[in-house]
Amino acid sequence: MESSSSEDEASLRDNDVDLNNENMEQHLTLDVSNHFTDSGILLQSHQEALETIEPFIGMEFESEESAKLFYMAYASRVGFSVRISKSRRSRNDDSIIMRRFVCSKEGFHMKKGNFEDGKKKRKRATIREGCNAMIEVIQKYYGRWVVTKLVKQHNHVVAAPCRVRYIAPEEYAGVEPFVGMEFPSHEAAQTFYYAYASRIGFDVRIRLSRRSTRDETFVMRRFVCTKEGFTPCEENTDENKKKRNRTPTREGCKAMFEVIKKDSERWIVSKLVVDHTHELATAPGKVHYIQSQSEVVVLAKGSSCNREKLTPVNLKPQFVDAFGSFDCLSTNDHEFKTDSRDNCQNAFGFEESQFFLETLKKMQAESPAFFYAFRHDKHNQLTNVFWADAKAKMAYYCFGDAVTLDTSFKENRNMMPFVMFTGVNHHLQTVAFGCALMTDDTEESFVWLFENWLEAMCGRPPVSLITDHHEAMAAAISRVLPDARHQLSRHHVLKKCKERLSRLYCTHASFEMEFLKCIEESETVEEFELHWKSILEKCDLIENSWLQFLYSIRHKWVPLYHKDTFTADLPLGEKPESLDSFFEKYFNRKTSLQVFITILDQAMAVWYEREALEDFASSCTRPILKTPSSMLKQAAEIYTRTIFDVFQDEFVESLGYFVDKIEVGLISKFNVAKDDHLHTWMVTYDSSDKRASCSCCKFERTGILCRHILRVFLNVDVRVLPEHYILKRWTKDAKNGFVLDECARYSDLVCHVIRYAKEGSTSLDVFNVAKQALQMAFAEVLAAKKDISSRCSM
User: Fold this and answer.
1) What is the DSSP letter of 301?
2) How far apart are the two ends of the chain, measured CA to CA in Å?
3) Residue 435: which residues within 8 A CB-CB, separation 6 or more?
């Protein structure tokens, strides 16, 4: 039978709280002897990798120690400390098969009984607050450790440190501890002793702490060897139960290092024992995360000590100078030019490039619909590569009317140069339309990317294409996709605004609300211009070069200027995750291409699984109607669960609007407003074919009728949705029909054509025969297509 492991829990718990479990200790100790290969990170460079990765269910590790290392590094970055809450052992070989790591504020302290010695006990600070944050990993049959449970939310304030410092123990090689040694803080003393222990060859834990009776701050810390004391023996109270023999981990070692706080705010070594009762290791092989309110110190052998540039801002994507005007623009700039850089600085090595291309070739051999293309530079290094599988093509045929090209890697030099074409499916989940690696970001490279993507997607351009700002990319889009409506990501612009105008956001409490209102709620160009000018004058921003630049490209990102273009811009449902965090999580520049393609494949499998689960749920369940309307009943049968919820919200909201008929006739006009009449929308209705249009253009933008038209429909007694207002891409049958077959047929023919061209180009004589045969075959295809069209029109 499996049981809990108290020894391992106690060992780590001693690193988190003092002997009496009454104070919060923020020291984390991690074994780095294993690899974290399943997230594409080799552990010798784990510090850089773990700075951006966040945990998720299904995440895999090579070992329990690797999982522990990851979660504790994550905790130190977010701003909380960790302890082991629960373990289970196998009844076969007594090995650990489950670990649960929790926030140190998990649970509640047990109340202690009253003492009869007459002594007055002071009230201790409470460090347990019932926090539910945790991660649980279980060893699977194939040896990997998999995250099966995860809670990321805390019920208390967490604060990320303002910086992360990396220190190598070798920096302290010439310093030995001595009584009277002084430190500016107990964290500095802790850093020194752990570095000393790592260099000498033993591990450390915190044995005892004391706090001030005035302000509960630390006044004493005692650090001891992990072999201090003795492992307690468990009494067998039940003779019928067989107890396992635990391996003793304590050997009575006396080595210790105690520091106390003096009135001068200095910490002084008051007690010291340097002799050990056991043999010392040559290298403990552990990483120590020493966290205070201001910083995290990462202490590990081989760490670089010159990485103080790592701050909480750096832990998020940053804009770099290759990102067009967004990146080279400072608040005082008046020139908006794109900085140049070495376009091929990220070119991949020859061996891994060959492996990657062989992998793509193998995928194409296994699936004829798989498409890939690549480019080399003048040094024969792989610079750009694009690929799309059959599922991406099928998804594009169903949901490729609105496409987003995510180039988040451009904001962070530490990320792999990975870009992805994405959209949303009929459940408002993210779907992929193709992926690429782009180390060369010139206009010609983007032209190459869009041409190959368009070829893979059977030559059909999207209605709208949303990207971040990049001058070379914008020029390429105008050349290759002139019919697509190119827009800038509004989220990207607003995020950049917070960075550029951070001081303004803090000093003017109403600025953000007014700014968003101007952008999101302006119904006409005149209204937007008036609001924009008012904000600039109120906040004295008329000369602000950043806002001048945004205004100059307003037609690219302000919704008012493209509200008649379909963008599928609905409130997002349960997306797998934001793409920014998705890219950061997996694709560090240290990630090898071999690991990269494996992780990407696994991540895509999770997306496809979520879509399949939602397909099943939509077909097998019926939503709850908020009102017994025949239109809602119809929508519940047609739309997926997620889209029905959006439609039902619009329908219910429409009941709170008033309608005023201002023109009568075959084509009628209505003013629609709420009771406050602060905003009025114009709805035009053609009774001959039950078509309506609204000044808000929600249907044109999203494919879902707005509350204003729905209110007019109720007024003119339209009780069911007209067929032309049911967009197939939002229905349960979105993936049914000829488009999937057409895509598969196209992909199959492409594979045959490639083989045909390969054989037909072997010599000039063969080429002439192949070309003549191809021309004859093409003429027959056109004749057959014309014949079929004429028969269908009869």
Assistant:
1) T
2) 76
3) 386, 387, 388, 418, 419, 420, 421, 600
**Tokens of residue 470, six digits:** 């990049």
pLDDT value for 352: 81
Contact 161, 76 (CB under 8 A): yes
Q: What are phi and psi of 101, to 5 degrees?
A: -100, 135
Q: How many CB atoms lie within 10 A of CB 205?
A: 20
| Whole-number Å distance between alpha carbons of 681 and 523 | 9
Burial class (CB in 10 A: 0-12, 13-18, 19+), 268: middle
**Domain residue limits, the chain:** 1-109+124-160, 171-231+248-284, 350-501+544-607, 630-726, 743-793
Per the structure block, which two tokens stand in for 729? 């891409």
CA distance linking residue 139 with residue 657, whole number of Å: 57
CB atoms within 10 A of CB 41: 25
- From the list 624, 651, 595, the residue with the least C-alpha distance to 418 is 595
Cα–Cα dist 340/676, whole Å: 53
Contact 401, 431 (CB under 8 A): no
d(CA 136, CA 86): 9
Strand-pairing partners, residue 271, are 258
642 near 428, Cβ under 8 Å? yes
* Residue 720, SS3 per DSSP: coil
What tokens does 390 get?
Answer: 């059959």
pLDDT above 90: percentage of residues in the chain: 30
Distance CA 55, CA 401 (A): 33
Which of 438, 473, 470, 475 lies closest to 324, judged by CA? 470
Edge-first strand listing for the sheet containing 295-299? 27-31, 286-291, 295-299, 163-167
| Distances in whole angstroms, Cα of residue 539 to Cα of each of 298, 332, 527, 535, 548 | 43, 16, 19, 6, 14
269-272: long-range contacts, CB 8 A cutoff, minimum separation 24: 269/177, 269/178, 269/179, 269/180, 269/181, 269/182, 269/189, 270/179, 271/179, 271/222, 272/177, 272/178, 272/179
Q: Is the pLDDT of residue 682 over 90?
A: yes
Q: Which residues pair with 66 in a beta bridge?
A: none
C-alpha distances in angstroms, 261 versus 179, 209, 668? 14, 11, 82
The amino acid present at 585, given as its one-letter code, is K
Phi-psi category of residue 250: left, alpha or beta, with phi > 0 → left and psi -120 to 50 → alpha? beta
Q: Evaluate whether 154 touches 160 at the Cβ level (below 8 Å).
A: no
Residues 72/28, Cβ–Cβ less than 8 Å:
yes
Pairing of strands 464-467, 485-488: parallel
Looking at mean pLDDT, say which of 57-66, 73-82, 510-519 comes out highest: 510-519
Q: Which whole-number Å values give the CA distances from 752 to 170, 300, 746, in the listed order?
A: 62, 56, 10
* Residue carrying structure tokens 């509640």: 108
Q: Across the chain, what does the average pLDDT equal?
A: 77
Contact between 623 and 649 under an 8 Å Cβ cutoff? The reply is no
DSSP structure class, residue 658: E
228-232, 419-423, 424-428, 557-561: range with lowest mean pLDDT: 228-232
Q: Please give the structure tokens belonging to residue 80.
A: 């909380």
Task: Give the residue-averaged pLDDT of 243-266.
Answer: 77
DSSP string, 65-128: HHHHHHHHHHHHHHT--EEEEEEEE-TTT--EEEEEEEETT-S-PPPPPPPSS-PPPPPPPP--
Give the Å distances, CA to CA, from 794 to 195, 231, 785, 788.
86, 91, 15, 10
Contact between 140 and 127 (Cβ < 8 Å) = no
